[in-house]
Amino acid sequence: LKTCWPAVQSSLRAMAASIVAVTNSVLEVLPPEVRAIAHAFMYATRIRLVDGLVKATLYSNKTWSQEGESIIKLTWEHGSQLAAFACMYKAANRLVGAVTGGITGDGHQIHAAVAGFLGGWMVWGRYSKFNETLNLYLYGRVLYALAQTAQARGYLPKSETLPAGSGYRWWSAIIWMIVMYQFERGQKKHPIQSSLYSSMDYLYHKSDGVGFEAWGAKLGRGAEIMPLAVIAVVVAKLRQ
Q1: What tens digit of pLDDT does each residue of 40-51 get?
Q2: Is the dihedral angle over the CA atoms 80, 81, 82, 86 positive or is it negative?
């Protein structure tokens, strides 16, 4: 194996170089809007395939065939949604710029906002679990950025005992205050996202119980060895 491995590595490098060369030659002749589609699918595949394989190995109780179908479906949805938005955004941005005479600077940011609105309405406005998850992710990022901006402009107080970026602390404190209140009020009165509620229920309610049904039921495939995995992580950390 040791004698064969250098040859295998060399072959893999040559194959990777060929793939890069072919991809470059194809993308060079395409307009930016189409290149954005290619970028979207490559990004989604990179994220979803790895994430899906890890989750299927550790957490899922489905068969590998079912998991494979699910991974392909999610990868396609992720890629196609990103591709549709990226293409629409770039095309709309170019169109708005042409209509307004190619304004730059702050005007270009307005183009981006208009194009983002159109893409958000047409692509991300169609309800699906994936769209909902991504919109919630962006919503949190937007709130965080607004808190930082408000703090920098003096709308939120600065504190001598907190770092300059204390807008982050305000944002974090308010978010966790609201979500914990909603969680404890119950899913029927405050219907927070089901996956979030399930995770919080495992952390804060199931931990009141004992036995495998309390700590292992939600961990999926391989739950039985999770305590050993935790111990391994702790020991490895202590040895660093």
Answers
A1: 998 888 888 878
A2: positive
Q: What is the pTM of this model?
A: 0.70
pLDDT digits 0-9 by tens, 10-36:
898 888 888 888 888 888 888 888 889
Rounded CA gap, 18 and 25, in Å? 11
CB within 8 Å of 38: residues ≥ 6 apart: 27, 30
Residue 168 CA to residue 183 CA, distance in Å, equals 22
Query: Is-contact 111 96, C-beta < 8 A?
Result: yes
Q: Residue 96 is encoded by which pair of tokens? A: 């708005």
Whole-number Å distance between alpha carbons of 144 and 109: 20
With a cut of 70, list the residues of the chain below it in pLDDT.
1-2, 59, 101-108, 158-168, 171, 187-191, 221
